[in-house]
Structure formats: C-alpha cells, structure tokens
Write a structure and sequence with these properties.
The structure holds 2 protein chains of 2 kinds.
Chain A lengths: L2 H29 L8 H5 L12 E14 L10 E15 L3 E12 L4 E14 L10 E8 L19 H6 L10 E9 L4 E7 L15 E3 L4 E3 L15 E10 L2 E11 L5 E2 L5 E2 L2 E13 L2 E11 L15 E13 L2 E12 L2 H7 L10 E13 L4 E10 L4 E10 L5 E12 L14 E9 L1
Antiparallel strand pairs in A: 1-2, 1-22, 2-3, 3-4, 4-5, 5-6, 6-7, 7-10, 8-9, 10-11, 11-14, 12-13, 14-15, 15-16, 16-17, 17-18, 18-19, 19-20, 20-21, 21-22
Chain B lengths: L1 H18 L14 H13 L4 E11 L5 E12 L6 E9 L7 E6 L8 E6 L4 E5 L15 H5 L6 E8 L3 E8 L9 E7 L5 E8 L3 E14 L2 E11 L5 E11 L10 H5 L3 H4 L1
Antiparallel strand pairs in B: 1-2, 1-13, 2-3, 3-4, 4-5, 5-6, 7-8, 8-9, 9-10, 10-11, 11-12, 12-13
Helix pairs in contact in B: 1-2
Classes of the chains: A mainly beta, B alpha+beta.
C-alpha cells in the first residue's frame, strides 16, 4: 500500500463523512425548520396511530452507509479500507391468528470485498403451540433462519455457541451484527419446575471468523502474520447437526440456567493431516447464575469445553479442552452513566501435554488466560446521544481491545454513529495482539423508512 | 441506543397507565389529614382495577422543535393493591425499536429495587437492567421513570399548602435530597377523583423548572383515567405528550403473561 493510496483513501472517507453531514443538515433543515415547538393542541392530532390500520403485515427497514479505515498500515493487506457498506435492510412481518412469519434481510454492497451480498437475518415461522391441545400451551416453536442468543456475558460468550460474526464486530458494524443467523429449529417448553429450550441446527453453522478478508491474523505454523482470505468448505466444514439445550428457572430475583451443546469448534482451529484448516468436534457443558446485588446486577457463568477429538490434550492438530469462568457486575454510577466489570478466565486442560506435543510451543497460549472487561455507557441530550466504551484487557497476555463509539439520533428517521476499534498488545501472536494492524476508525449513517 | 431509552420509558409508561386510573370510591374521603390524602391519591392513581391494557403513544418535542414518537402497548397486573405490580411493554414504533419488549416487576418495598428486563430482537438478547435511573429520561422522553411508576410516597414529607372546593395542593419535600434533582414539588389533587392533575417541580429559590400535567381525563369502565398527559422542561421549552387509547381494565391477565416467555414470544392474544 503506497502512501499516496492511503492518503487517497483518507480523503475519500473524509468526503463521504462530509456528504453525510451535509445530507443530515439538509434533512434537518427541511423537516424541522420551525425553531420553536408548536402549541401542543395541534400536536395531539398530528400523530397517526399505526394499529388503526387493519393491515396484518408490516414493512419497515433502513438504508445504511458505513465506512471505516485502518489507523495504521497493514503490510499484509493491500487496502486501508476496513468497512465500506451500502446496505438496505427490509423487514417484513405477517401475522396469522396464532403465529407470525418474520423476514429480515440485508442486501449490501461490501466495498472491501467488492461484492454484493445478501444476508438473510431472519426468515421464521413462530408460534405458540396451543392449537395442538391444552398441553401444547406449554410449547413455543420458532423455525427457520434466525439469530439466537443466551448466556449472561456482555460481549463475552461461554455457553452461547450460536454463530458470531467477528469480522463485523471488529470492523465497526452495528453491534447487532456480532450475532450471525443460523438455519435452526427452536422449541421452548414452559413447566412449573423449569423451562427448556432445545435448538436443532441441521447443518453446522460456523462463526464468521477472522479469515484474512478484512483483517490479517497470526498463523503459528508459519510464525508470521497472514491474510489468506480462506473459506473452509465441505468436507473440511462439517455438515452434521448441532444441538443446543438450555434448562432455566427464576427463583425470586435470581436466574439459574444449565446448558449443553454438541457440535463443533466454531472456528477452524484444527488442522488436518494435509495442513488444511478444519472444525473438530466439541461438547460444552455449563451453568449460569444472575441476580441483583446492591444497586446492580451480578452474573456468574461456567462452561466446560470438551474437545472430543483430543481427550488427552496431546494431539497437536486439535485444540485442547478448556474450562471457562465469568464473573460480572453492572450498575448505574450516576444518573445516565452505567459501568460494568467482568472477569473472564480460560484454562486450557492438559496444558502440559499441549506444550509437549505442540508444533509451535512458543506460540501456544498460557495455561490460564485472564481477561477483564470494562464498560462505560453515557446517555446525554435526552438520550439522543449515547457514548460507549468497552475494553477487553488480558493481564496474562498483556493485550487488549478497546471499542469506543458515539451514536447520535435526535429524530426517529436517522442515526449517525462513529467510533474506534483499537487492538493492542506486547506480542504479535497473542489473542488481541495479532490484530494490532486491524485498529480502525468507522462512521455509519442509518436512515429508517 | 434507542432500546435503552425505551427500556426506561417503558417503565414510566406502564406506571403512568396506573396513575391514569383511579377508583371512584376513593373520592368519598373528605379528610384533611395530609397522610390520608397522600395515601388516597396514591391508591387512586396507581392501584385501581386488578389489571389493565392500553395502547400508548408519546410525542417527544425537543427544544429545537424536533419530534420523535414512541408507540407501544402496556400490560399491567397488580399483585396486591398498594403493593407489587407486574408490567410488560411491547414497542411497535419507531421501526428501529419495533418488537423490543420491556418487562418490570415493581416492588413497593423501598428497600427492594424493581426488577427490569429488556428484550432486543435484533440480538435475540434478554438483558437484565440494573436499578437506578428513576429520575432519568424514559425512552428519550421528558417523562422520568418515576413520573410513570409513581414516586413512593414514603420518600417525601408532605404538607397541605392550599385547599379550595375542588383541589388540595400539597408540598412534597424529599427526605433524601441526594437522590433527586429537585428541592421540592407541589402537587394538585382533584378532590373528587383524588387524581393528581398538576405537579410542579422546583429547585432552590422557587425556580419552577419542570411540570407534569393531566390534560384530559375520561371515564373508562367507571375508572376516571388520564388519557392525555404532558411533561414540560420549562428551561428548554421541550416537552412530551403522552396519550392512551383502547384502555381496558380487569381483563384477566394471568401471571404467565409477565414472563421471559412473553419477552421473546409476545402473547398475541392480548396484543391484537
């Protein structure tokens, strides 16, 4: 990447930001030209009531522009663009008597990959199963392409093995894109003693992992940073089902849950005999607890990662099992300012066997990895402005990831957001440290219709 | 993020729904005992009917005249009169908060904070919300959480400062000033309905900076109900209008409606 191109890129980003600002000012001036509120007697009649229409379907969505640039050069990747989306989201709901069809789809031009993409985030039929008889009243079903989430962590996932999109998260897309959809069937059962969710995903859906398309990563076997832009396809990507189960219960102010997952490691961190990346089997057993404590919320979660294909931890091509712990606390610090702290540990099982058999022992993670996360969220200007800072910091790896963002939305029609993703670390091979050159600045403008 | 605004707003509204209703029987009381008036007003404003459903809409107008809207349906159920309550708020507008749901378990005991959850559909996330923020904006409106939920009467000292044929006017002074932004407030209570119809908040030196008013009251199933209310920021000129429609009381909402199940899969039976 030549210096000239970088400047060119920055100039183009600046132009785009300016055009967004000009657009906002125009919209603003046109629609809201009156400097003072009208008498409220007039305002009462101003708002139409949506549900007065008898329509059983609803259509909505947004148009979004998003841009991001790298803060420093990544010599492995030939562009400073980290985000360049022009996106249209269409949301369509159709209500039947006892059930609902929902459809949410994004069509976007990804200027980093120079591809037009369709991302169906939801295409589901959801119902209460009361029509099956009185017993059916205890069951709900949601079938189709859907985003699924459970667990107690804030941006930290232990028992939630549903797909995540780390490329979008790192690039500064809206936080909802951290969760990626899967084609699944979810059945929920509600009993007096406990509630149960069972999710079947007929074909394994991996994370959208960092593969070199947007950001380079450290490849231990090559002992260097790479940006292969690889995509793992069958047969190296399993086509077998995933099963996820949650058993949960609330008692007073406390929420208890137990979890089970059977499927695969969500990113291709195993290697075949031919040195191809692949996904090995994984079972996860876990539990969580959440309650109020003082003026805040306390949560604790545990997960045992059983790396089925490497029971003794001595197979160098398959990741070892892990025990993961999470402790968290969140509360309002003063009016409109919230803070949270989490402590997360990952302990590698059979670490000694891992080091003894590893092809790259000096790049293997330490036996215990400890992270702290800190969040501050401030809401100002009657909540039209929201400032967010979220920091991951590992005391054992001495690396981290700081995500800072500002969102401004003084009207219902649009939202302007901007922020920074900063990765830092002492070593180039640690979890966050490897992404140092991925640090970026982003801006987004979303127009709702 | 709008969702958070909504969370707060929801609670407010839910509570407003209560405040909007009062029990006509309460109006018979003629005592000038201040504690009695306060108790009756609280009862009238927040604990009438066993449960209720209403469609609500807020129009938020900021100091620059910019408008925002929130539309939602509130379901409320009393556990006991003058005691705990359950609430669900289902948002339908604007489009970026559609299908967001807010759940509150309100505890009358001062020592016990309300439990609050927020469901964010884009993430399929049920987030538990910490206590606090009772005097911060409810979903970006000029209503505070506490305007909707009702400020617990034991948090203030009251004295009767005016009485005429139609109204009592009480002055409320907070016992703990560190938890509020006001110095004192005056509340005008309709003698017939015991409904608070005007509240003015003051900072030091009688600086009236904030106002909550009942704009229109209707009889719904025998319960006089505030169907239009307004909160004004007298410093900036910004204000929020709130309106309720399709109000129904004593519809027979059961405990199951107020649950995590309803966050993820709303009880359509009650929302049509």
């Amino acid at each position: 990447m030549s210096r000239f191109n970088k400047e060119d890129m920055q100039r183009r980003l600046l132009q785009r930001v300016l055009s967004i600002i000009i657009f906002i000012v125009c919209v603003h001036g046109e629609v809201y030209s009156k400097p003072f509120p009208e008498p409220y007697e007039d305002d009462w009649g101003m708002i139409d009531w949506e549900e007065e229409s008898e329509d059983i379907y609803q259509l909505s969505g947004f148009l979004e522009m998003a841009s991001g640039v790298r803060l420093s050069n990544d010599p492995i990747i030939g562009t400073d663009k980290t985000l360049s989306d022009l996106r249209l989201q269409v949301q369509f709901d159709y209500d039947l008597q006892a059930s609902q069809f929902s459809f949410v789809s994004d069509a976007y031009f990804d200027g980093v990959l120079e591809q037009t993409r369709i991302n169906i985030r939801e295409a589901t039929w959801e119902a209460r199963l009361g029509f099956l008889g009185a017993w059916g009243n205890r069951f709900d079903a949601k079938v189709g392409q859907q985003v699924l989430t459970w667990g107690t962590g804030d941006n930290v996932f232990l028992n939630d093995l549903f797909p995540k999109d780390f490329q979008s998260f790192f690039a500064g897309r809206e936080v909802e894109y951290l969760k990626s959809p899967s084609l699944s069937a979810k059945v929920s059962a509600y009993f007096d003693v406990f509630n149960l969710d069972v999710v079947l995903t007929p074909e394994f859906e991996p994370d959208v992992y960092i593969n070199g398309d947007y950001f380079s990563f450290f490849l231990p076997t090559a002992a260097t940073q790479v940006a292969l832009g690889f995509d793992v396809t069958p047969p190296l990507r399993p086509q077998s089902p995933e099963y996820a189960l949650r058993l949960y219960k609330s008692v007073g102010k406390s929420e208890y849950a137990g979890y089970f997952y059977s499927g695969f490691h969500k990113s291709p961190n195993s290697i075949t005999q031919d040195y191809g990346p692949t996904f090995s089997s994984l079972n996860v057993y876990g539990a969580s607890f959440r309650t109020t404590l003082g003026n805040g919320i306390f949560n604790a979660e545990f997960a045992y990662y059983d790396s089925v294909d490497d029971e003794n931890g001595d197979k160098p091509l398959v990741p070892n099992g892990q025990a993961r712990w999470l402790l968290g606390y969140e509360q309002e610090i003063v009016g409109n300012l919230e803070g949270s702290l989490q402590l997360h540990t990952e302990s590698i099982l059979d670490h000694q066997a891992l080091i003894q058999n590893s092809l790259t022992p000096k790049f293997e993670p330490k036996q215990h990895r400890v992270w702290f996360t800190q969040r501050l969220r401030y809401k100002g200007m009657q909540q039209a402005l929201v400032l967010n800072a979220f920091n991951f910091y590992s005391t054992t790896d001495q690396d981290g990831y700081l995500k800072v963002s500002a969102e401004y939305s003084p009207v219902d029609l649009w939202r302007l957001s901007g922020g920074l993703n900063i990765f830092y670390g002492k070593q180039p091979f640690t979890f966050w440290g490897q992404f140092e050159d991925a640090s970026n600045l982003f801006v987004r403008f979303r127009y709702f219709y | 993020m709008k969702v958070y605004k909504i969370a707060i707003a929801t609670t407010l509204l839910a509570l407003v729904l209560n405040s909007v209703v009062y029990n006509a029987d309460a109006a018979i009381t003629q005592s000038v005992n201040v504690d009695e008036i306060v108790r009756e007003a609280e009862k009238a404003a927040y604990y009438s009917g066993e449960d209720g459903i209403a469609d609500a809409r807020m129009l938020i107008i900021d100091a620059q005249g910019r408008k925002q809207m929130r539309q939602f349906t509130i379901l409320r159920r009393d556990i006991t009169d003058n005691g705990d309550q359950q609430m669900m708020v289902f948002f339908s507008r604007p489009s970026d908060v559609r299908d967001t749901v807010f759940r509150v378990e309100k505890h009358a005991d001062l020592k016990k904070d309300d439990d609050r959850w927020l469901y964010m559909p884009a993430l399929d996330l049920v987030k538990r919300i910490s206590a606090g923020g009772k005097r911060t904006s409810f979903v970006g409106s000029h209503f505070f959480y506490e305007d909707v939920s009702g400020r617990t009467v034991s948090e203030d000292n009251f004295e009767l400062i005016e009485e005429n044929k139609k109204y009592y006017v009480l002055k409320g002074v907070p016992l703990d000033k560190s938890t509020v932004e006001f110095d004192y407030y005056s509340v005008t209570i309709d003698k017939k309905s015991f409904l608070p119809i005007l509240i003015n908040f003051y900072k030091e030196s009688d600086d009236n900076y904030r106002r909550v008013e009942a704009v229109e009251i209707q009889d719904v199933q025998g319960f006089p109900t505030v169907v239009r209310s307004k909160v004004s920021d007298l410093k900036t000129g910004g204000y929020t209008l709130m309106e309720f429609r399709n109000i129904k009381y004593n519809v027979g909402l059961d405990d199951d409606v107020f649950s995590e199940r309803s966050l993820r899969n709303p009880p359509r039976r009650w929302l049509d």
